[in-house]
Write a structure and sequence with these properties.
This protein is of the alpha/beta class. It has 15 helices and 13 strands. Keywords: Phosphoprotein, Two-component regulatory system.
């Protein structure tokens, strides 16, 4: 039987339409949560980190942690495994965009409504006022557009080129929309064939190679065709032949790969430099200090050592970033205007106990040291600090985070 994927706009009555299709066909519904859960179990990453890949907002640490790219790689493998399990499945949600467009027995559906109808549904089903509903819709549309751009390279998430059927639910109605989807399942173009089965196997192999690259800190666009894997590098590389050789060795070690070809893509000549993720080095470090020149210089010195660091200049900004982006290690000054370092430390360890905090101050006393260590600081260092000592302390704090994770 064919597979159905459904992508939709918020408040487009997709849940009701999908339920009616499932009831009419006997298909099993697979949601984003199930794909996220499987991806998390395969990768060892948390479900929260996997699910954040669906959000438009990218972490300030992502250039060094590659967390979103790793999450997408594991989501692809989770989806590929599901496609291999059985055919009579309906995938609904963000993950529906993951399978390659050339798998013919997947009926690709988009459910969308005009804004007036979406606002009316938001009010009737959730009781939302128009202003609040608009805010939710715009945020969800932004997430969906960023996701489709990331995994499909298309800026318009509702583009007809992405789907076999685009259903205007506001015009067709819930019953009419469900009937149209069920009717299209009988189309000869979406029936399972040996060729379409082989394309699923290609998807599985490409996904396995993608996760093998991600596990070693690499990322590249991966395609597979009957055992031949093509790797496309879309970032500028200073030593291209060396990188191609390394990627080819990793891909070639994956079971089922017969041949590996490496090439460069359209993004290769841009300024975005290819970076391999070194999992032994800190990649999510937050520097908090109101001495701008000092902290910017410190950030640059850490980056020269391949450690990823973001900078904020006051305690309030630090607390906001911790809430939104979850750094793993924080280097924190004590004397700052507004919320001081001790209060930041207190709140961080209370609300985000897994974040390790290194105090780095030029004005602290022995009493301050005792207070900070009592609140759970990982270390207490004085300015000016030897960069080697700081690097060693950072690595030790990062190691503790990894071991606790």
């Amino acid at each position: 039987m064919s597979v159905i994927t459904v992508f939709n706009g918020l408040f487009s009555e997709a849940g009701v339409v999908v339920k009616r299709v499932v009831d009419a066909t006997g298909y099993r519904l697979v949601t984003d949560q199930e794909i996220v859960s499987k991806a998390a179990s395969l990768s060892g990453m948390s479900e929260g980190k996997i699910a954040r890949a669906f959000q438009a907002k990218t972490s300030v640490f992502n250039a060094f942690s590659h967390e979103k790219e790793r999450a997408v790689a594991w989501l692809r493998l989770a989806m590929a495994d599901k496609l291999m399990e059985q055919d009579n499945i309906l995938f609904s949600g963000f993950a529906s965009q993951l399978p390659p467009v050339d798998i013919d027995h997947i009926l690709k559906v988009c459910l969308i409504s005009d804004m007036k109808h979406r606002l009316a549904i938001a009010e009737s089903t959730e009781g939302y006022a128009e202003k609040h509903a608009l805010k939710l819709i715009h945020k969800d549309d932004e997430d969906r557009a960023a996701w489709v751009e990331l995994v499909r390279g298309v800026s318009d998430p509702w583009s007809k080129e992405l789907y076999d059927v685009v259903v205007p639910v506001s015009a067709s109605g819930v019953d009419g929309s469900a009937d149209l989807i069920v009717e299209q399942l009988g189309n000869a173009a979406v029936q399972v064939t040996d060729v379409s089965r082989a394309k699923v196997e290609n998807f599985v192999l490409a996904a396995k190679v993608g996760t093998a690259l991600a596990a070693t800190g690499h990322s590249a666009e991966v395609r597979a065709d009957n055992g031949t894997v093509t790797l496309t590098i879309n970032k500028h590389v200073l030593m291209l032949e060396r990188l191609e050789r390394e990627l080819s060795e990793i891909a070639g070690s994956v079971d089922g790969v017969k041949k590996v070809e490496a090439t460069v893509g359209k993004g290769f000549h841009q300024n975005d430099i290819y970076r391999r993720m070194d999992f032994d080095l800190p990649s999510k470090v937050l520097l908090v200090d109101d001495e701008r020149e000092f902290v910017q210089t410190l950030s640059e010195r850490l980056m020269m050592r391949d450690m990823g660091a973001a900078v904020v200049y006051d305690g309030e900004s630090a607390l906001n970033l911790v809430k939104d982006d979850e750094p793993e290690v924080m280097i924190l000054d004590l004397k700052m205007p507004g919320i001081d370092g001790i209060e930041v430390l207190r709140r961080v360890k209370r609300e985000h106990p897994d974040v390790e905090v290194i105090i780095l101050t030029g004005h602290g006393s022995e009493k301050d040291r005792d207070v900070c260590m009592g609140l759970g600081a990982f270390a207490y260092l004085h300015k000016p600090v030897d960069i080697d000592l700081l690097s060693k302390t950072l690595k030790a704090a990062n190691e503790k985070v990894k071991n606790n994770g």
